[in-house]
Design goal:
The structure holds two protein chains of two kinds.
Chain A: H1 3-30, H2 37-62, H3 70-88, H4 90-112, H5 119-138, H6 148-155, E1 157-158, E2 161-162, H7 163-181, H8 183-193, H9 195-200, H10 205-231, H11 242-252, H12 264-283, H13 291-310
Antiparallel strand pairs in A: 1-2
Helix pairs in contact in A: 1-12, 1-13, 2-7, 2-10, 2-11, 2-12, 3-4, 3-5, 3-10, 4-5, 4-10, 6-10, 7-8, 8-10, 11-12, 11-13
Chain B: E1 4-15, E2 18-29, E3 33-38, H1 44-51, E4 59-64, E5 67-69, H2 74-79, E6 82-85, H3 97-102, H4 112-117, H5 122-135, H6 152-165, E7 170-174, H7 182-199, E8 202-206, H8 210-216, E9 219-224, E10 227-233, H9 239-247
Parallel strand pairs in B: 3-8, 3-9, 6-7, 7-8
Antiparallel strand pairs in B: 1-2, 1-4, 4-5, 9-10
Helix pairs in contact in B: 5-6, 6-7
Classes of the chains: A mainly alpha, B alpha/beta.
Chain lengths: ~300, ~250
């Protein structure tokens, strides 16, 4: 075994972790504020919504598809929930929100499984439809005066820890168990690695892929509800473009665009790194105009490293 | 005389006007290895795909252990103990050996966690896998290594191990030594022999490689234009005769 081969395996297992720590250490020295509890909590709060939709995107990618509608779905489901809550209260609003999510996920899944590799287009179309739906519902104005119980998830604190962070941690643990230890999680990966082989082993490929879109939409719904709490209102532009951050975080975390490969741990590290970039550039006083450039460069770097790892 | 495990009678498969398989009669005995040989387009692949349920037969009967069976899908054939061993699609390359052996039929924990959340019994699956792999004669130091990091022969062993583990009594190999180096080819041949001895399964292999045929099989069936044109026990024939039957040139 050559030395470079070993490094490749090392990088595959720990590369993302190393990048994370480099950022972390760099920011610790670069800014006085970075390590304060306040700022650390802030970073976590900022990534909680991105974390949730990234797990959704991750799930669809694991199954060999992609869901680009998560950002708009977050916004749409949020404002539907907000609007309903004004008339019927929180419980009905939440029920409606999750039902709408299941319907959106079903449509994504139904159309995406009509052909090979069409989920990009299908969910992109869904993204446009949902955003337009959001504008129709809100008339491009915020929905205000939400019931207190509805903004609880996004607004409350558990001790020092913001509720969104608690939600994210719980969801991450569920996803980690789901993908590491359950038959359903394993079958999603199997379908993503090779749908031909999976179907040969008796797995219903279409059904499994449908589930991935349902899961993704439910994540978006949860993120949308948290967003309501963070804004204490239903914002027409909530989640706009967030799907690209999510895709970036997921790819950064080592999930393969070819399907089947990737870990929940990687996704969370990817999300954290994007969070550090946002926070760090702020603290260092860099113009926010540079923010997306920085993210783009980091994601490009991740893709190149990923390709290099795969080369035999 | 040994028991007949598989018999096909007057089996035909037409694609429109093309008679890809045309009235084939074939018997396979318990523990026997046969080769189906023939030129390109002779109908070998169509014949085994019809037996394994990939194609629906046009006419004819298939008997398993003297009972007529209806095979309309690959699931039907597997239910009847016929396992087709595919080369490239036979394994999930980024899964480890236990995951490959159990994918789609994962063992869940024998408690509430297993029942309600379908939490897998990974320890059981690992142990079973190691047993199976030992029986088919490969030792993998660490069974949690992804299959893509194993050799072609080890990968093949996992695919075959899976087939016999789930009750395959008739194994069909389509060009098992294609795209393999010489040493790996040898390992696959030894593997098939060992599987037959360990599990007393019957094997049909399709191959172009006449020297492998003579090393491995008990009987050789020659197809031409979808029909059987010759059938020889290995001990009664030689490579030259087989080649001349294949080509139809005496």
């Amino acid at each position: 075994m050559s030395k470079s081969f070993d490094f490749r395996i090392f990088w595959r297992n720990y590369g993302i972790l190393i990048v994370f720590f480099i950022f972390y250490i760099f920011l610790s020295f670069g800014s006085d504020v970075f390590l304060t509890v306040n700022n650390q909590v802030n970073v976590l709060r900022q990534i909680s919504i991105l974390g949730l939709i990234s797990l959704g995107v991750f799930t669809t990618l694991k199954g060999g598809n992609i869901d680009l509608s998560v950002g708009s779905a977050l916004g749409f489901i949020g404002v539907v929930c907000a609007k309903v809550s004004l008339y019927y209260g929180t419980v009905i609003a939440l029920l409606v929100a999750f039902s709408v999510a299941l319907f959106v996920g079903f449509l994504n899944g139904f159309f995406s499984t009509r052909g090979k590799n069409i989920s990009v287009i299908v969910t992109l179309a869904m993204k446009f439809i949902l955003y337009s739906g959001t504008l129709v519902i809100t008339r491009a104005r915020p929905i205000v005066g939400l019931p207190k119980s509805l903004i609880f998830l996004g607004h409350a604190n558990v001790g020092q820890v913001p509720m969104p962070v608690v939600v994210l941690v719980v969801v991450v643990i569920i996803f980690w168990i789901f993908f590491s230890y359950t038959t359903a999680g394993r079958r999603i990966s199997a379908v993503g690695v090779s749908d031909i082989t999976a179907s040969f082993f008796g797995i219903s490929v279409k059904r499994v892929r449908m589930y991935t879109f349902l899961i993704s939409a439910l994540c978006a719904a949860l993120a949308g509800i948290i967003m309501l709490g963070r804004c204490t209102s239903g914002q027409p532009n909530a989640g706009l473009g967030a799907e690209l951050d999510a895709v970036g975080a997921v790819l950064l975390g080592g999930t393969s665009v070819e399907g089947g490969i990737g870990t929940v741990r990687g996704v969370i590290l990817g999300v954290l790194i994007l969070g550090l970039i946002n926070n760090g550039l702020n603290l260092l006083g860099v113009s926010p105009f540079w923010r997306d450039s920085a993210k783009g460069v980091v994601i490009l770097f991740a893709i190149l490293m990923d390709q290099w790892e795969r080369k035999k | 005389m040994k028991r007949v495990v598989l018999e096909v009678k007057k089996l035909s498969k037409y694609f429109g006007g093309i008679k890809a398989v045309d009235g084939v009669d074939l018997k396979l005995y318990e523990g026997e290895i046969i080769a189906i040989v023939g030129d390109n387009g002779a109908g070998k692949s169509t014949l085994i795909k019809t037996i394994s349920g990939v194609y629906k037969k046009t006419s004819g009967q298939i008997y398993i252990n003297d009972k007529e069976v209806n095979i309309n899908s690959t699931l039907d054939s597997r239910r009847n103990g016929i396992e087709t061993v595919y080369q490239s699609e036979g394994a999930l390359d980024s899964f480890d050996a236990p995951a490959n052996l159990f994918v789609g039929r994962e063992k869940v924990l024998n408690n509430l966690l297993g029942k309600f959340f379908k939490i897998m019994d990974t320890r059981y699956m690992k142990k079973e896998t190691e047993k199976v792999l030992k029986r088919v004669g490969i030792e993998i130091k660490d069974s949690s290594v992804e299959v893509m990091n194993l050799s072609g022969g080890q990968r093949q062993s996992i695919i075959v191990g899976r087939a016999v583990y789930w009750g395959g009594k008739i194994l069909i190999f389509d060009e098992p030594t294609n795209n393999l180096g010489t040493e790996q080819q040898r390992k696959v041949i030894n593997l098939i022999k060992r599987i037959r001895n360990e599990y007393n399964v019957s094997v049909i292999i399709i191959t172009h490689n006449i020297s492998h045929v003579f090393e491995l099989v008990d009987r050789i069936v020659v197809l031409r234009n979808g029909a059987i044109v010759g059938e020889r026990l290995k001990k009664d024939t030689n490579p030259n005769e087989i080649v001349s039957i294949i080509t139809g040139v005496a």
